[in-house]
Amino acid sequence: MHRLCQDLVACELLERDGSHYRLGLLLYAIGLRAPRQRTLRHAARPVMENLAQSLDSPVSLSVPNGTDLLCIDNAGRHRNRAGASFGGRLLQLHSTAPGKLTLALLPDQYPLARLAPRMRRMTARTLTADRLPGELARIQEQGYATDSEEHRLGYSAVAVPVRGPRDGAYLGALSVVAATARHNVPRTLAALRNASEAVTTRLAVIEAYRTEP
């Protein structure tokens, strides 16, 4: 097994971090060839770039991926060098805004009983397992999620769902991260909601174009 893992690292299908292994960027690149993910990225990319420029903050697009949450694209960078999550990186479910949004909207796919043993406190403000259910109920009710220095001290984030144009299914999370001291959450939330609607509209246009005879 060790030799097999070493071969996969050499081929960039896995990455090694000490005694731990994770999926490599080559697998991520292969995965992006899947039609649904490619279409979503294509629809979201110009919207994300405009949003990042208008807010002067990094924007990320993350999608459910089995039992994980995968960042598939990001845009923008703030002047304080805060960046969005790198494309291809798995996000923490319990301590990030897009992660908590996904937990709240896909409870059957992401049961808390399975997540709880793997939860670790990223900062002193990270929610504990006993507080997370109440937070997820609030997210379900209000339709968006926030992260107030729960993943990284000094930074806050807001995430909203991106939904399919036909059935309204949850496709992924559009999120913005900014330094807490300058983060205007109401302004960010309004801009994110408009951006999410724009992505859904672009998806509808793409699907209509593809189904034309």
Summarize the structure in words.
The protein has 213 residues and is an alpha+beta fold. It contains seven helices and seven strands. The strands form two sheets. Strands 4-3-7-6-5 form a five-stranded antiparallel beta sheet, with helices on both faces. It has a two-stranded antiparallel sheet with strand order 1-2. A hairpin with a 2-residue loop joins strand 1 and strand 2. Helix 3 runs antiparallel to helix 7 and helix 4 packs across helix 6. The radius of gyration is 17 Å and the shape is globular.
Descriptive key words:
7 helices, Beta-Lactamase, 213 residues, 7 strands, two-stranded antiparallel sheet, alpha+beta, 2 domains, globular
Low-confidence stretches: 79-85
Structural class: alpha+beta
- Termini, distance in Å? 51 Å
**Helical content class:** 40-55%
Tell me the domain tally.
2
- What is the CATH architecture annotation of the largest domain? 2-Layer Sandwich
Anisotropy-based shape = globular
Q: What is the name of the CATH class of the largest domain?
A: Alpha Beta
What is the tally of beta strands? 7
Would you identify the CATH H-level superfamily of the largest domain?
GAF domain
The pLDDT mean sits at 86
CA-atom Rg in angstroms: 17 Å
Give the biggest sheet: 5 strands, antiparallel
Percentage beta strand:
15-25%
Order of helices and strands: HEEHHEEHHHEEEH
Number of helices: 7
CATH fold description of the largest domain: Beta-Lactamase
Strand order of the largest sheet: 4-3-7-6-5
